[in-house]
Amino acid sequence: MQAVVKTPHIEITLKGEISERLLSVLEEEYGDSVQILDDDDEETVDIFKTDWYRKVKSRMAPGDNLRIYRENAGLTQAKLGEKLGGVPRQHVSNMERGIRSISLKTAKKLAQIFDVSSDKFI
After folding, report:
1. Which of these, 66, 70, 68, lies nearest to 100 by C-alpha position?
2. DSSP secondary structure string for all residues of the chain
């Protein structure tokens, strides 16, 4: 059996014989974020090691990452612009579409906002 919890800031994977008590604690704490996989039913794959992921990743531009992180955080372009210190919504839009490059200074601010490496935006 395998229990998996994955949120933006937490990743827990347990494998083997997992007690019902531990499963109930995980489900109580993380709710729908908990996935229980029976080893007999499903084969798990580390998506980051697949050819498909490498192919998709190679086609992603910094603006794509910006859009994904912004949407996952539930921010509008205007709200992200405010968090960046008054950047106009149109500038955020242009960065997402690759029309406007993301400066190192902005990449560092984005990294702080989303708690990720600035490399995601360069």
Report:
1. 66
2. -EEEEE-SS-EEEEES---HHHHHHHHHHHGGGEEEE-TTT-----GGGSHHHHHHHHH--HHHHHHHHHHHTT--HHHHHHHTTS--HHHHHHHHHTSS---HHHHHHHHHHHTS-GGGG-
**Residue 17 has what pLDDT?**
83
Q: Which residue has the tokens 């008054």?
A: 86
Residues forming beta bridges with residue 13, ordered by sequence position: 4
Q: What is the pLDDT of residues 31-88, one digit of tens each?
A: 888 887 766 555 667 888 889 888 888 888 999 999 999 999 999 999 999 999 999 9
Q: What CA dihedral angle connects 48, 68, 58 and 34, to 10 degrees?
A: 10
Stated pTM of the model:
0.58
Domains of the chain, with CATH numbers? 2-44 (no CATH), 51-121 (1.10.260.40)
